[in-house]
Amino acid sequence: MNAARCGTAFLAALLSWTSLPAQKLPHFYNVDSEVRLEGSVLDIVLEIRYVGNAPFLVIILEESKTKQRYKVEMGPSWFFAKDVHKGEKVEVVGSLSEKEGEVKGVIARQVRYGGETVMLRDTMGFPNWRGGAMKRQGRRRGRGI
Amino acid sequence: MKRLSLFVFLAAVWRLAVLSAADLTFSFNQHATGNVFQTRDKISDHISTLSLSLTKDFSGLSLFSEAGYSHFAGNPGLSFGGATAGLDYLRPMGEKSALYFSGTADAVLFSSDFRDFDHAVLSFLGAFKSYLGPNSILKAGAALEYRNYRDSLFDFISQTFSISLDRFFKTKTTAKAGLNWGYKYFLHPFLAPAPESPADGSSQGGNGKGRHHGGTGYGLPSRSDSQGAGIQTLSLSALAAQGIGTRLGLSLSAVRQWNLSGGNPFQSVEEFYLAENPTYDDFSWAGWGLTGLVTLRIPWEIDLKMGYTVSDKTFPGIESLTLDGIPTGVIRHDRRNQIETRLEKAFSKFSVFLSYSFIDNRSNDPYFDWRSGFLTGGIEWRLPFGKSE
Questions:
Q1: E strand or H helix at B10, and its extent?
Q2: Backbone angles phi, psi at B116, to 5 degrees
Q3: Which ipTM was obtained for this model?
Q4: Any residues with CB less than 8 A from the CB of B208 and at least 6 apart, and which?
Q5: Are A134 and B88 a contacting pair at CB < 8 A?
Q6: Nearest residue on chain A to B96, judged by CA atoms?
Q7: Contact (Cβ atoms closer than 8 angstroms) between residue A121 and residue A127
Q8: A143 and B351 in contact by Cβ < 8 A?
Q9: Does A47 touch chain B (CB under 8 A)?
């Protein structure tokens, strides 16, 4: 009985902890401003996007229909895990963010090129990337492609 | 009381995840195979694999940990659990280049029959990637690994160096070439001299379930000193990939590997399904492989991959044996044909996949002449906590 009571208390504590407010950031994934873009990669850079985090892989994308340019933020570890080149046709699903100069910003959650789909974030914008990406690549666990 | 302890433990993990804006990933895979030991014995199994990983990012530094358990329903002695902890660090060098470092510690513990395969691993990885131009990428890497097994026969230290260069052309074609050098040194792979025993099949070791497989019986009782044994390999790889729009990709890749010196120091090389056998890895063979792969986005936003691989491998130092365990005087040689297909669908918080592969392995060692299928389904569920960057 006591154990059950303690368990309930812990569950209540868990619920209170999980409801802690997330840190408010000036640059965040907004599901209401999600767009789908298709275009070509004009440039690729590695730059700091968030204070206290690893530098991000960023691509400059020119949309095929409008010729509008976008600065598309991918993720930190993907600079090593995936190879994107200038000229490559890319389809991006992501959230529009603030303009950087004349170029619109996009935080990508899904990128597709050459038949490969890379899920960078979930539909709420939470990152999918994990530490140890390079090690995981070389690991053999069962069959599969 | 046990239940209370479990609550406390889960609460602590949860609390850590929430406060530190960490990412928790849960995955469950269910495998079915008609040949878990990949031999002519064709012992089938159903394997359930559960894993949980936790990652926390600091400035350029990422701490990661993972724990998992694989249960082999038909061969419970092969069930194993493992844990990994490590950190990696990404350091930019200008806008087009970066250095990556990681250090990892692993531990794997098997159930009863395969306790000799229990091991601890320390590994370090350094890598460099640079865009030489907007269409060309140079990658270089070095890795060092030390493994310590319960059966010290398998202990080794290995190092590898790799370099690759690719180029993307206006035709949407990517061409890539790579060179890889590796050296693996088994610290003490030879058994101490033992009184002579009749050269029958049982001297191959094993646990009574066949000619080979078992946690013991791989050692060569021919050397009395504590000398080690090294094996050195060099491989060349090439890849040509063609993107057709964003929804279809085709690739053809080839690898050629040479054995520069040394050989496998054991009596046998065996590759199990899912569980690592210390006698088999990328150092243990010489030969070539050719892979064709189609990746396609099909209706309902499902990713489809279909591949075909043919490989031709010899195993330096490993003699082909008859089914009675009598040496034939020739090096073991395998020719393998493999088809694979995989379907994957991502939902908002989780992704699911289903994959099937069929392997036809022809070998001049009849024990390793086999054909079998492998089916896997799985789910991966991500539980991010804290800030949404």
A1: helix B2-19
A2: -60, -20
A3: 0.71
A4: B214
A5: yes
A6: A45
A7: yes
A8: no
A9: yes
**Residue numbers in B near A17 (CB within 8 A):** 14-15, 18-19
DSSP-assigned beta bridge partners for residue B344: B303, B353
Angle between helical axes of B2-19 and A2-18 (0-180°, round to 10)? 10
A100 touches chain B (CB under 8 A): no
Query: Would you say residue A17 lies in a domain?
Result: no
Interface mutation target, options A32, A80, A91, chain B, most CBs of B under 10 Å: A80
Give per-residue pLDDT as tens, B348-377. 778 999 999 999 999 999 999 999 999 999
Provide mean pLDDT across the span B93-115: 91
Closest-approach residue (CA) in chain A for B274? A142
Count of domains forming chain A? 1
Name the minimum distance, in Å, from the CA of A49 to any CA of chain B: 9
CATH of the domain at A52: 2.40.50.140
Query: Could you give the CA distance from residue A88 to residue A44 in angstroms, rounded to a whole number?
Result: 11
Chain B residues in contact with A55 by the CB 8 A cut-off are 60, 90, 92, 98
B45 closest CA partner among B54, B37, B56: B37
pLDDT digits (tens, 9 = 90+) for B152-192: 889 999 999 999 999 999 888 999 999 999 999 999 887 66
What pLDDT sits at residue B85?
A: 93
Q: Give me the mean pLDDT over the A60-76 stretch.
A: 91
Residue A139 covered by a domain: no
Judged by a CB distance cut-off of 8 A, whether residue A64 touches chain B is: no
| Domain map (residue ranges) of chain B | 23-384
Specify the range with the lowest mean pLDDT, choosing from A9-13, B152-156, B257-261, B262-266.
A9-13
- pTM of the full predicted structure? 0.80
In a domain, A8, yes or no: no
Q: Give the domain range for residue A93.
A: 31-129
Q: Mutate which of A92, A135, A136 to disrupt the B interface (most B C-beta within 10 Å)? A: A135
The span from the first CA to the last CA of chain B, in angstroms, equals: 40
Does A37 reside within a domain? yes
Out of A20-29, A91-100, B320-329, B337-346, which region has the weakest mean confidence (pLDDT)? A20-29
Residue B201: what pLDDT?
Answer: 39
CATH of B23-384, one of 3.40.50.1360, 1.10.3720.10, 2.40.160.40, 2.40.50.140: 2.40.160.40
